[in-house]
Amino acid sequence: SQKPALDSYHAGPWEQTIGYSQAVRVGHMLYVSGTVGADAKGQPADLDGQMKKAYGGIQKTLAHYNTDVSHVVMERIYTTDIEALIRSQETRKQIYGNSAPAATWVEVKRLYAPADKIEIEVQVALD
């Protein structure tokens, strides 16, 4: 059997260093890697601020594929503070508006960088 053609997108050189792609397109599906919102100095320090920046990074990736969050079919959020994530649901709802993807939210001990409080990954159905 033939392997599907993969179309990868890289947001920065750190991906090659670590060994992943920001996004991979397979057919009509786009898989976006977990995206964090803290910079190298751990800013912003609060989860809500990190969430907004993470969604901004996801929106930039989706724009590369000429799509937007209304096409997200699955979202997974990993957080070091589930209570803060629950308090930030209004921020999340503002991102998605009238669309509501399937979603899983999980509290974890830590993320890749110690200052990261949230990491969001999505799967997108492309036209």
Description:
The protein is of the alpha+beta class and 127 residues long. It has 4 helices and 6 strands; from the N terminus they run βαββαβααββ. The protein has helices spanning 14-18, 47-64, 82-87, 89-96, and strands at residues 6-9, 23-26, 29-36, 72-79, 102-107, 118-125. Strands 1-2-3-6-4-5 form a 6-stranded mixed sheet, covered by helices on one side. A hairpin with a 2-residue loop joins strand 2 and strand 3. The longest helix has 18 residues, at 47-64. The radius of gyration is 15 Å and the shape is globular. The two termini are 25 Å apart. The mean pLDDT is 91.
Structure at a glance:
By secondary structure, the chain is of the alpha+beta class.
Distance between the termini: 25 Å
Number of strands: 6
Order of helices and strands: EHEEHEHHEE
> What is the chains' assembly state?
single chain
Mean pLDDT: 91
Strand order of the largest sheet: 1-2-3-6-4-5
Helix and strand layout, with pairings?
Elements: E1 6-9, H1 14-18, E2 23-26, E3 29-36, H2 47-64, E4 72-79, H3 82-87, H4 89-96, E5 102-107, E6 118-125
Parallel strand pairs: 4-5
Antiparallel strand pairs: 1-2, 2-3, 3-6, 4-6
Notable features of this structure?
alpha+beta, 6-stranded mixed beta sheet, 6 strands
